[in-house]
Automatic annotation (TrEMBL):
Major localization listed first in the record, in broad terms: membrane
Entry annotated with the keyword Membrane: yes
Sequence intervals crossing the membrane: 12-35, 41-65, 86-103, 134-152, 205-225, 231-254, 266-282
Keywords carried by this UniProt record: Membrane, Transmembrane, Transmembrane helix
Topology with respect to the bilayer: Multi-pass membrane protein
Coiled coil: none
Gene Ontology cellular component list: membrane
GO MF terms, alphabetically ordered: transferase activity, transferring alkyl or aryl (other than methyl) groups
Keyword set includes ATP-binding: no
Name of protein: Geranylgeranylglycerol-phosphate geranylgeranyltransferase
Top-rank lineage group of the source organism: Bacteria
Length: 283
């Protein structure tokens, strides 16, 4: 029984994507400290809890609406491989969303609007938007980007979150496209209409390359206009831009799911390096 409870707890951590929730928390803390070196710590704590709840709810509802696809793509997902009550999980989604929205109201009116809009958009994404070619990709990229505006708002100056939001948007948009290429077999089986299914894997890959190269071009702007310092420049060039080019080359050369999944995971980690560069550059 103890082992079963432990396994279910671990499964629940996978279900809410604990690593994604923590990355969201990290992004909020980073953008708050970019906005100010002396944030209101009560508001910062509220923003952290809000993001954790909204992210957790969004990740659960995503799996709930994606069960059939995951039976092919990722059969080890907790909702498939473990005995979770689906009705209870739907209730938990709304508990997480409502708790996050209520807490955000104590930060500011703008934070409340962002949290409410994000929760609604996460639900719509999982229910419908993710099945629409490119609309789903844009939606999740926008949701990730607005996280930095939210964090900077908690820090007292939402404008300081604009560049991190733009960086995040393009990084996630490119990754969303490559993830669709990775998942094309399962998505096609489930009747989804993602970009690789509509226009093919090759054209989708080159669209992702265009998005990533727009991102690479944008990364130079804050250094040359004097917004960020030399540390940002060096970390971004060697830790983000060059790494992205190498990862895209690997993705193109090796046409197997394991390699593509490896690349997509490391693109996520490359985003963390970019955020560290922004933090270092803003000091």
């Amino acid at each position: 029984m103890k082992q079963n409870r432990k396994s279910k707890f671990i499964g629940f951590m996978y279900l809410i994507r604990l690593n994604n929730c923590l990355m969201g928390v990290f992004s909020v803390i980073l953008s708050a400290f970019i906005a100010t070196r002396d944030p209101d710590y009560i508001k910062l704590l509220l923003s952290i809890i809000t993001v954790f709840f909204v992210f957790a709810g969004g990740n659960i509802v995503n799996d709930l609406f994606d069960i059939e696809t995951d039976r092919v793509n990722k059969p080890s997902r907790p909702l498939i491989s473990m005995d979770f009550n689906l009705k209870h999980m739907f209730v938990l989604v709304f508990v997480f969303f409502i708790a996050g929205i209520i807490l955000s109201a104590f930060i500011s009116t703008a934070a409340f609007v962002i949290a409410l809009f994000s929760a609604l958009l996460l639900f719509l994404y999982s229910w419908s938007f993710k099945r629409l070619p490119f609309i789903g990709n844009l939606t999740i990229s926008f949701l990730t980007a607005i996280l930095f505006i939210f964090g900077a708002e908690a820090g007292g100056d939402f404008t300081k979150g604009i560049f991190p939001a733009v960086f995040s948007f393009f990084m996630n948009l490119g990754r969303e496209i490559t993830k669709d290429i990775e998942d094309v077999d399962g998505d096609e089986y489930a009747g989804m209409k993602t970009l690789p299914i509509i226009i093919g894997k090759t054209k989708s890959f080159f669209l992702a390359v265009v998005v990533f190269f727009i991102l690479i071009a944008i990364t130079f702007v804050p250094y040359f206009n004097g917004t960020y310092n030399k540390w940002y420049f060096f970390i971004t060039v060697f830790g983000v831009d060059i790494v992205l080019i190498v990862l895209l080359s690997i993705f193109f050369i090796f046409d197997d799911i394991r390699t593509k999944r490896f690349v997509n995971n490391y693109i996520k980690y490359d985003m963390i390096i970019g955020l560290i560069a922004i933090m270092m550059g803003a000091t």
